[in-house]
Specification:
The protein is of the alpha+beta class and 465 residues long. The chain has three domains: 51 residues; 97 residues, PH-domain like (Roll); 288 residues, Transferase(Phosphotransferase), domain 1, CATH 1.10.510. The protein is extended and about 100 Å long. Helix content is 41%, strand content 18%.
Length: 465
């Protein structure tokens, strides 16, 4: 239809104008003129309809419901806008080949559609099924569909590239370490029903992270911190005050590469941060799946991360993250890096229990002594870049030289070594200086690295911590 547009959008209307002009000067039989006029009017009208029919190939999913393409009008009884409350069944039907699966959606008010899952990207299919799970909560979702959704999530996270045993061991040790309190179960509601727990994302020690639904519509992440019951009253009070103070500071933050902190509250002696749900894959899993990343791609990511730290450190008072690692940075499909976790709850738990915050390989010496500064975050940034370039965590309490494991430019190796110096006075003064040094190493042709790195997506939101 696009190729024929000069004919039906320009040529036919032009001929119609000429014919009308001719009618004003020449007598033409009524029937003949009516037929010609009808054809000349019908051609562009049908062409517009056909162009709209073929162009409209997207399903739009929103908080209220689903909007289907024009081609589904007949199957839906000429009502292509459907509310989630109208969805009755989401079924999986095996297609004519092993690779082809059909998703069947049925509605209470009548009508059903069959979607060819092979014609939709895996990441979009996963997101669509998650939407039916969260917003279409009254719909029947049989075990076959849930199993298919689980397989799809695993494929998007790279499980097909690793053994199931290896993946489970890594995920369990990383996300679900031993905890000294009972995490919340799915379907649990907080704040009088304002928040409903969808699933646990991670827990360990005295902290847990959940995917939740806000007001029955919006997906958010809840970070939970618990003070042990045996803590003395003074420690509990101090920790709670610290949590509230830092939470108020974080709520004021507004940066495109930082997940927003919407709110904080306490309930049943547990404290919560409400964070923005970011869909993507954390950098640890991205590197596990795709291997060490090209230097130019890492430089672009590094400039973004350094910009995040510079923004945090320039706040008044400065915000020290204290736990910057590949696990807390999410890679989105557009190559944007987003920081998804904050130090408020970590600082809160660490103060209440006397435990150490942060992963050992990324902790600066002064932070080990309980005296974290903004340069402690610079140290963690250097360790994170070491991991992105080599696929290996840096040696704890050691100056990192990734050039010993991976061929990279000496200038980048020097920057990482400077960031991970043992003495604070030997590190770059601030993250803002690093942004300029990193950007100076980015080549104009570095955009081609994206193809080398490949693309990866996942439920970040479900991998979000």
């Amino acid at each position: 239809m696009m190729a024929l547009m000069p004919v039906w959008a320009i040529g036919v209307p032009f001929c119609l104008g000429l014919f009308i002009a001719m009618l004003t000067k020449t007598a033409v039989p009524f029937v003949a003129s009516a037929i010609v006029m009808g054809v000349l009017l019908l051609i562009p009208a049908l062409s517009i309809l056909l162009a709209a029919f073929f162009e409209d190939d997207r399903i739009t999913v929103g908080k209220e419901g689903i909007s289907f393409p024009i081609r589904f009008l007949a199957a839906l009884g000429f009502r292509r806008e459907r509310l989630w409350s109208d969805l009755s069944d989401v079924l999986l039907i095996n297609g004519d080949t092993a690779e082809r699966n059909l998703l069947c959606l049925k509605f209470h008010s009548g009508g059903e559609v069959h979607l060819d899952a092979s014609a939709i990207s895996k990441s979009d299919t996963e997101q669509f099924l998650l939407a039916t799970e969260v917003w279409g909560k009254g719909a029947n979702r049989p075990a076959e569909l849930i199993a298919y959704q689980t397989r799809l999530q695993n494929e998007n996270r790279g499980v097909d590239h690793l053994s199931y045993t290896q993946m489970w061991e890594e995920e369990l040790s990383r996300r679900f370490s031993a905890t000294s309190f009972v995490p919340l179960e799915p379907e649990r509601v907080l704040q009088g029903g304002r928040y409903k727990i969808i699933r646990q994302l991670a827990f360990g020690g005295l902290s847990a992270i959940y995917l939740a639904q806000k007001d029955g519509i919006e997906l958010v992440v809840l970070k939970e911190a618990v003070v042990p019951a045996n803590a003395d009253q003074e420690s509990r009070k101090k920790a709670t005050e610290l949590f509230d103070r830092e939470a108020r500071l974080l709520i004021k933050l507004n940066h495109p590469n930082i997940a927003r902190v919407y709110d904080h509250f306490a309930e049943e002696n547990r404290n919560y941060l409400v964070l923005e749900y970011i869909r993507g894959q954390d950098l640890r899993q991205f590197v596990k799946q795709n291997g060490p990343q090209p230097e130019q791609l890492v430089l672009r990511w590094a400039a973004q991360i350094a910009s995040i730290l510079d923004y945090l450190h320039e706040q008044s008072p400065p915000i020290i993250h204290r736990d910057l690692t590949p696990d807390n940075l999410v890679h989105k499909d557009d190559e944007t890096i987003v920081l998804i976790d904050f130090g408020a709850a970590n600082e809160f738990v660490g103060t209440a229990t006397g435990t150490l915050v942060g992963k050992q390989a990324y902790i600066a010496p002064e932070q080990l002594r309980g005296k974290a500064t903004i340069l402690s975050d610079v140290y963690a940034l250097g360790g994170t870049l070491h991991f992105l370039l080599t696929g290996k965590d840096p040696e704890a309490l050691m100056t990192s030289h990734p050039i010993q494991l991976q061929p990279i430019s000496p200038k980048l190796d020097d920057i990482i070594a400077a960031c991970t110096e043992m003495e604070e006075s030997d590190r770059p003064v601030k993250a803002g200086d690093l942004v300029q040094r990193l950007q100076a190493l980015i080549e104009p042709s570095a955009d081609t690295d994206r193809a080398k790195a490949g693309t990866a997506s996942g439920a970040a939101a479900e991998e979000t911590k």
